[in-house]
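Hi V.,

You were right to ask for the full record rather than a summary. Here it is.
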Amino acid sequence: MPRFRVYHTEGVILRRADLGEADRVVVVFTPGRGKVETIARGVRRITSRRAGHLEPLTRARLLLAEGRQLDVITQAEALDLFPNVRADLERTAAGFYLAELVDRFTEPQQSNVSLYRHLVEGLELLDQGHDPDLVRRYFELRLLDAAGFR
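Predicted structure:
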């Protein structure tokens, strides 16, 4: 049976790093494939339409093509930007804390649907105005449970 090289997925952007003049490495946490390192070619150009959809702490729908080392993002559509998280420094710090925990506690290509749901739920709770300290503690317990350390 032929293997498809192009696939759709939803994911939360955990972090990014510049590569070359116009490219960017983007780490995405997806429900079906876990943590995936991808490359977005030409996203740092002024005319790029994908740049705003690939910001950290964004839940996005992605079209990816499998590459030799890194999958290539060919399309991106933001599903949730969590605007209240971005508007407040304390909520932004809490959101990056959640993303950092997921990044450190997961291995690449290891699916964890429950952890993905907990991450999205944590970002939604921060966006709704809940206390960032309570959201962090709640997420830490859920993370330990989903990762098998609790």
